[in-house]
């Protein structure tokens, strides 16, 4: 295959795989941050990473991982295992996977000797091993360490079970993050861009943050967009009941990628309406604080099961003191009665975890602080405290405003802290919808 053909293939959907090598990674002792870093850097130039693999220091295993990668990827970047010791096997494995011999690379040997000379240290014989590279490989200079990296075009992989008909580019970089980063930035990245035809693609991601419905319900409304092969890609992830819809576009420029994303974002917003609360890194408490500050309105908080979390989240936002008047954590019935004015008969007849008590807490705290808005939380965080009619995870949120008071029942699954966190989000979300004038 000629270079021009390879280039064409690369322009139209190239796949990358990253292989991290080291027993300290497979044992769980160290975390593989190299793959994360490389995936982000590759995305910046439009290269999508489809696989991450982690392998211990075993020649057979590394060769097997390389062959698997060669069969399914156009670009394979390996990190780690380029040191001088016996368990550094990347060079040997690369040569085996590409079906070539290791040969001594004089220039690299001179660079390693120079590295030791500059530090006025004798060079151990073992370090010579670092200058043996697979036949046909180019050495990637390493100015921060002794191990040169490897750039190896492997067009024929005789041993592969399912040979990839395309040429595969194999790159090996040291495991030490600082060395790897510098070599990638200075040497590898420009060459990859050249390989991509000079004008790199970019992958841009726009995240729409949603709250208030389950993942499956959201996806049902977006099935045509989330299906495989849709461009731009739309993916769904969930964290603490907050659903993120990621719209990912690949294009020749950021402007072009954003132009592709815009209509998809519009469609999602039309279909999901008030469930979308923010974009990218925006969080619910930030949105609520911003709305309050923009409208010059104030809020007070009364919390039972969230123990101050709603108030705390609001205090994370700089400048919120103009809008957040304060919060009361009223955990015991007596506190709800004495500090918030919840009538005792209400607590006795409905129980502390009930809609009327949530409403009375909100009304009480709003009055006491003289706020425009009030939000309250009461519920059963578990694992104990459930009754026949009130299960763990049952939560009531109260919202009081100038025109009256409303309450909402929510039911969460999860551990105690998860129920607390999700309830805090529920409270903030209910408040957001009221401030926006579209209560759920
Ligand atoms: P050198 O020859 O420069 O020592 P190397 O290629 O031999 O590099 P390793 O010996 O595999 O690298 O790893 C050196 C150190 O780099 C590890 O102890 C670890 O701290 C770090 N490292 C290795 N791989 C990773 C990884 N995937 N993510 C984060 N750190 C890593």
Model description:
- By secondary structure, this protein is of the alpha/beta class.
- The protein contains 16 helices and 17 strands.
- It has helices at about 5-10, 25, 35-45, 60-70, 90-100, 105-120, 175-195, 215-220, 225, 255-270, 285-295, 310-315, 335-340, 345-350, 355-370, 415-435; strands spanning about 15-20, 50-55, 75-80, 100-105, 130-135, 140, 150-155, 170-175, 200-210, 235-240, 240-250, 275-280, 300-305, 325-330, 375-380, 395-400, 405-410.
- A six-stranded mixed β-sheet has the order 2-1-3-8-7-6, sandwiched between helices.
- The termini are far apart.
- Adenosine-5'-triphosphate binds near residues 79, 81 and 176.
Structural topology:
Layout: H1 3-11, E1 15-21, H2 23-26, H3 33-44, E2 48-55, H4 59-72, E3 75-79, H5 90-98, E4 102-104, H6 106-118, E5 132-134, E6 138-140, E7 149-154, E8 168-173, H7 177-195, E9 202-210, H8 215-220, H9 223-226, E10 233-239, E11 242-251, H10 254-272, E12 276-279, H11 284-295, E13 299-303, H12 309-315, E14 324-329, H13 333-340, H14 344-350, H15 355-369, E15 373-379, E16 394-401, E17 404-411, H16 416-435
Parallel strand pairs: 1-2, 1-3, 3-8, 13-14, 13-15
Antiparallel strand pairs: 4-5, 6-7, 7-8, 9-11, 9-12, 10-11, 15-16, 16-17
Helix pairs in contact: 3-7, 4-5, 11-16
Bound molecules: adenosine-5'-triphosphate.
Residues 20, 22, 24-25, 30, 32-34, 79-83, 88, 145, 147, 174-177, 179 line the site of adenosine-5'-triphosphate.
């Amino acid at each position: 295959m000629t270079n021009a053909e390879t280039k064409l293939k690369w322009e139209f959907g190239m796949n990358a795989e990253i292989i991290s090598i080291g027993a300290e990674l497979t044992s769980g002792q160290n975390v593989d941050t190299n793959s994360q870093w490389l995936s982000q850097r590759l995305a910046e130039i439009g290269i999508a990473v489809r696989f991450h693999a982690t392998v211990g220091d075993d020649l057979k295993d590394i060769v097997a991982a390389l062959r698997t990668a060669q069969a399914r990827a156009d670009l394979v970047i390996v990190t780690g295992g380029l040191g001088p010791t016996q368990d550094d096997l990347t060079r040997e494995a690369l040569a085996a996977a590409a079906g070539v011999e290791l040969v001594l690379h004089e220039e690299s040997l001179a660079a390693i000797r120079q590295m030791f000379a500059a530090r006025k240290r004798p060079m151990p014989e073992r370090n010579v091993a670092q200058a043996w590279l697979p036949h046909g490989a180019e050495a990637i200079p390493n100015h921060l360490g002794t191990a040169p990296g490897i750039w190896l075009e492997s067009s024929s992989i005789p041993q592969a079970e399912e040979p990839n008909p395309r040429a595969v580019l194999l790159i090996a970089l040291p495991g030490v993050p600082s060395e790897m980063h510098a070599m990638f930035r200075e040497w590898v990245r420009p060459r990859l861009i050249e390989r991509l035809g000079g004008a790199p693609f970019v992958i841009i991601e726009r995240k729409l943050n949603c709250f208030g419905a389950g993942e499956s319900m959201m996806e049902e409304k977006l099935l045509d967009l989330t299906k495989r092969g849709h461009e731009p890609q739309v993916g769904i992830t969930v964290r603490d009941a907050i659903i993120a819809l990621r719209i990912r576009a690949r294009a020749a420029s950021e402007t072009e990628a954003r132009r592709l994303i815009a209509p998809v974002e519009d469609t999602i917003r039309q279909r999901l309406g008030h469930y979308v609360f923010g974009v990218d890194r925006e969080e619910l408490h930030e949105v609520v604080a911003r709305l309050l500050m923009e409208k010059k309105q104030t809020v007070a908080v009364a919390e039972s099961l969230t123990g101050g979390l709603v108030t705390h989240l609001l205090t994370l936002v700089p400048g919120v003191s103009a809008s957040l008047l304060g919060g009361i954590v009223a955990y015991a019935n007596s506190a709800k009665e004495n500090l918030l004015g919840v009538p005792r008969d209400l607590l006795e007849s409905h129980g502390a975890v009930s809609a009327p008590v949530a409403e009375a807490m909100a009304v009480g705290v709003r009055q006491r602080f003289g706020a425009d808005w009030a939000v309250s939380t009461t519920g059963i965080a578990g694992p104990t405290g459930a009754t026949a009619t009130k299960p763990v995870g049952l939560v009531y949120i109260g919202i009081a405003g100038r025109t009256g008071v409303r309450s909402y029942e929510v039911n969460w699954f999860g551990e105690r802290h998860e129920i607390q966190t999700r309830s805090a989000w529920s409270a903030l979300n209910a408040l957001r919808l009221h401030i926006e004038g579209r209560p759920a």
